[in-house]
Amino acid sequence: MDTTANATGPVTDPTTAETGLATRKAVPGRAARWNVMKNGRVAFPLTVLVILALVTIAAPLVAPYSPTQLLGAPLQEPGRSHWLGTDDFGRDVLSRLIYAGRVSLGVAAGSVALATIAGVTLGLIAGFARGMLDMIIMRAMDILLSFPTIVLAIAMVAFLGPSIRNLIIIIGVIYTPRFVRIVYGSTLQVSEAEYVQASRVIGSSDARILRTAILPNVMAPILVQVSLSLGLAILVESGLSFLGLGAQPPTPTWGNMISNARPFMEMFPHLLISPSVVIGMTILMLNTLGDGLRDALDPRLKGSR
Amino acid sequence: MGAFITRRLLTLVVQMFFVAVLVFLMLRLVPGDPARGILGESATEEQVAEMRRQLGIDRPLIEQFVDWFGGVLTFDLGDSIISGRSVAGDVANRITNSLELIVVAVALSLIIAIPLGTLAAMRANRPTDLALSSFAMLGLSLPSFVTGTVLVLVFGLKLRWIPQSSFVAWSADPIAHMKLLILPGLTLGFANAAVILRMTRSSMLEVLRQDYVRTARAKGLSEKRVIAAHTLRNAINPVISIVGLEIATLLGGMVIVEQIFNWPGLSSLLMSGVLSRDYPVVQGVVLVIAVLTIVINVVVDILYAVLDPRIRLS
After folding, report:
1. B1-15 CB burial, b ≥16 within 10 A, e <16
2. DSSP line for chain B
């Protein structure tokens, strides 16, 4: 995104940041990793996200009320007993928001974990095996990529049914091709490198080449992709819940809170505002983290997305 | 050029075939018996058998596929289980509305994002750039159902600038029809504008560093002329390619935006199919949207090659 960030932002890796064209950079050492953490564009969003995750994990301890209990007067404005008001059923909005985070963040984390594991595995297989297997895997990924994500997700939910487990699998499958492509590209590139050829000549096993040459090279782009994919996964999950195809009521999700708030939004905009702000902020933090990580870890990727 | 287009069209055909295979196989994802899934637990065995016949799933898989794919090639996407109408007919009735929305969204996003992206590049790392880049980041982060809902609330319900009326066909009242397109077009265009703005900015920055731009400035051309004649023309190609890459996102966003604004495009057909377990409708619409994505991508690729000889020669 930012081709001139080095001039203003903190220089995170002197060997690469100065020239901006490091070739085949190994994974940052411990010192560089620490520098990444000191980078404000990484540390700030990461802190916010960690707090958010902790709050949702600790939901039963943090939330003032139960997310599904009817607590009396519906559609209360934000006030002392209900900080964010109550919804049309008289349920506490703040508590629902916190519990809803469990669904959104949980599904996002689960699906991206799945996509990362599947993507790295398939990418390595395709990159190592070449030939027929390579072609089959990569073409299959192209086919998956030719569907708009949300359309593929809607179709798969239509056929599989909308349970949390299915959502994780569906969104995981949808984001697998991104990881396959990254790992595949790096694997091909690295296997051609002279030091890898040399390593082969002296009898290194595939496993050793994988561990010492390939994985260190793909770590940075994978990390960036994880961060961006988490944001996209939340977009898909909340979009599905908004359409009524996500986790089913009474389970709160950020998406279904927004769609529930729409009929009342003219009179009671507070119902719309809080889930919108939380979704927007979470994805904003993940995108900022992704951008920050990309610029900090791998200047070659700058401007790509 | 001819060879490039032929090659691209050939991959298009192959890709479409496999997309069709995947859409066909989606019915197999249904846990248990799809016919039972549609009819519910209370249906009799005879009803289920009849539904299996109607869905065609009582025959061997290959035979089903040949039959289904043959239909697809002749624009026959089967019939809706619920209404009995031809899916292709329903798609044809709605696809123009969807395409209209896409065109308006792309046009709005280009009109908004290219000047703003250029401005951000010219003021790189200054407050204007910071504000514009933050605006773009916001566009990337806000789901379309949030932007759309907020736009309806502000411009429709509070300010009442745009009437909240039901759908008006172009043939009935073109002006009212276009008015109804503004908010959905803006909603869908906003996220796209964010991506284009970022791309325009970084592409412009790249070109602004080139020697020939320095030469243009050195020979005393006005900044306006340097930008318009020397920089933008060269910076625009990556922007076009990103529009192509964003088509899938745009068509996906379209599904949600149409729902928010009750726009009678493909999305309402898809959603009613999903909610009533009308599997042929779901398969038909998903296939059409995927094919649209692929076709638009190829068109953009070819356009890109026409504009930039470096691509087609490589």
Report:
1. eeebeeebeeebeeb
2. -HHHHHHHHHHHHHHHHHHHHHHHHGGGGSSS-HHHHHH-TT--HHHHHHHHHHHTTTS-HHHHHHHHHHHHHTT---B-TTT--BHHHHHHHHHHHHHHHHHHHHHHHHHHHHHHHHHHHHTTTSHHHHHHHHHHHHHHHS-HHHHHHHHIIIIIIIS--S--PPP--TTT-HHHHHHHHHHHHHHHHHHHHHHHHHHHHHHHHHHHTSHHHHHHHHTT--HHHIIIIIIHHHHHHHHHHHHHHTHHHHHHHHHHHHHHTT--SHHHHHHHHHHTT-HHHHHHHHHHHHHHHHHHHHHHHHHHHHH-HHHHH-
Chain mean pLDDT for chain B: 86
Identify whether residues B29 and B99 lie together within a single domain: no
**Does residue B289 sit at the A interface (CB-CB below 8 Å)?**
yes
**Is A243 an interface residue toward B (CB < 8 Å)?**
yes
Given a cut of 80, is residue A48 above it in pLDDT? yes
Give mean pLDDT, residues B270-293: 90
Q: Does B84 map to a domain? A: no
Beta bridge partners of B79: B86
Find the radius of gyration of the CA atoms of chain B: 24
Q: Is the CB of residue B296 less than 8 Å away from at least one CB of chain A?
A: no
- 146-175 in A: which are within 8 Å (CB) of B? 146-152, 154-161
Rounded-to-integer distance, Cα A14 and Cα A152, Å: 43
Among B17, B43, B73, the domain-final residue is B73
Q: What percent of chain B has pLDDT over 90?
A: 25
Which residues in chain A are contacts of B277 at CB distance < 8 A? 158
B78 domain-assigned: no
Q: Are residues B136 and B272 in the same domain?
A: yes
Residues of A in contact with B22 (CB under 8 A): 143-144
In B72-101, the residues whose Cβ lies within 8 Å of chain A are: none
Q: What Å distances lie between residue B196 and A73, B20, B140, B141, CA to CA? A: 46, 31, 11, 14
Instruction: Indicate if B68 and B133 belong to the same structural domain.
Output: no
Q: Which domain holds residue B66?
A: 2-73
Closest CA to B293 of B252, B241, B255, B265: B252
Q: Does residue B83 sit within a domain?
A: no
ipTM of the complex: 0.85
Residues B55 and B155 in one domain: no
> Any idea what the CATH number is for the domain that residue B282 is in?
1.10.3720.10
The encoded tokens of residue A50 equal: 């960690």
Interface of A with B in 180-239 (CB under 8 A): 231, 235, 238-239
pLDDT the model gives residue A22? 41
Distance CA A114, CA B97 (A): 37
Q: How far is B170 from chain A (nearest CA, A)?
A: 27
Q: With respect to residue B284, please indicate whether it lies within any of the assigned structural domains.
A: yes
Residues B128 and B240 in one domain: yes
Mean confidence (pLDDT) of chain A:
81
B273 and B133 share a domain?
yes
- CA atoms of A17 and A10, how far apart (whole Å): 10
Cβ neighbours of A284 in B, within 8 Å: 137-138, 141
Question: pLDDT value at position A31?
Answer: 53
Residue A143 contacts B, CB cutoff 8 Å: yes
B294 touches chain A (CB under 8 A): yes
